[in-house]
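Quick one from the shared queue. A colleague (R.T.) flagged Palmitoyltransferase as missing a structural entry in our internal table.

Convert sequence to structure tokens.
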Amino acid sequence: MAPSGPGRVRRRCRRVLYWIPVVFIGLLLGWSYYAYAVQLCIVSMENIGEQVVCLIAYHLLFAMFVWSYWKTIFTLPMNPSKEFHLSYAEKELLEREPRGEAHQEILRRAAKDLPIYTRTMSGAIRYCDRCQLIKPDRCHHCSVCDKCILKMDHHCPWVNNCVGFSNYKFFLLFLAYSLLYCLFIAATDLQYFIKFWTNGLPDTQAKFHIMFLFFAAAMFSVSLSSLFGYHCWLVSKNKSTLEAFRSPVFRHGTDKNGFSLGFSKNMRQVFGDEKKYWLLPVFSSLGDGCSFPTCLVNQDPEQPSTPAGLNPASKNPENHQFPAKPLRDSQSHLLTDSQSWTESSTNPGKDKAGMSNPALTMENET
């Protein structure tokens, strides 16, 4: 028990240190509220109408900012479901077998009924030794949380949480509302900031709050705009930050746009089908985070296309059509409501077999 005591203390100390960026943001937000609502609006603004409009708009943005930030911090990341965990017997087999083909054969048998289509760079089944589970598509192990996180984007120190399937929408709204919050403060504070330099403000402590408030809002606006723009691009391409740096690997090879279904469907996968919830930090993303529909292979013009004169249907059948494994209903319906996704002949007696779409190239685990 003695060796575990210092380890627990270190872990607790790290947990406390991880909250420092969140506390910093909270203190900064509290000061900005005092500086804007009290020192700028109430003390410095002389026009009553301007005060009312600014205070109402400010409190609306402030509330949405805090709400989305809170949800991003305290929404627990989702972990793979039990079906991806190995049974006790399978764990025993893995421990006895050396790493190699026999090791992979055990994992292939365990994964044959799972909706997974991505592989490691070497083509092996993606397996987490620490969590002892087969990783679902887009799932990665977070070294900070020490857990496998569904559709992991990154671990964000500013929210002390992993950003993944369960809170990625909240994280996007947090970026959006924090950017609007800073832009609104900078825009409404600008005229008083100019008065500060032209000695048009009375010599009170309010003038220093106004000056520093403008500087802080302007600087955060620049950094937040670039970060928000980058994540908007990721959503439009249906990529995570990790996938932008390392493209997912399927059985047919690397495909950097493998999960992209088109702009509209990519947006709906994150924000959901009901637009009334898009701007609210309430969970509305589609699916369960364990399985995702994939798109056509090599649709990116930067990737190799089919050689001229070669019919794709005449390619090696092992690389042509892979029977699709069942996807969750909320995911698979994304593929059935657009003209760009044509269906092949279906057997009405096999509804539970999932999608029978030749336009989709899925991974065959056999």
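The radius of gyration is 26 Å.
The beta strands are 118-119, 127-128, 133-134, 140-142, 147-149, 154-156, 161-163, 249-250, 253-254.
Added to the table.
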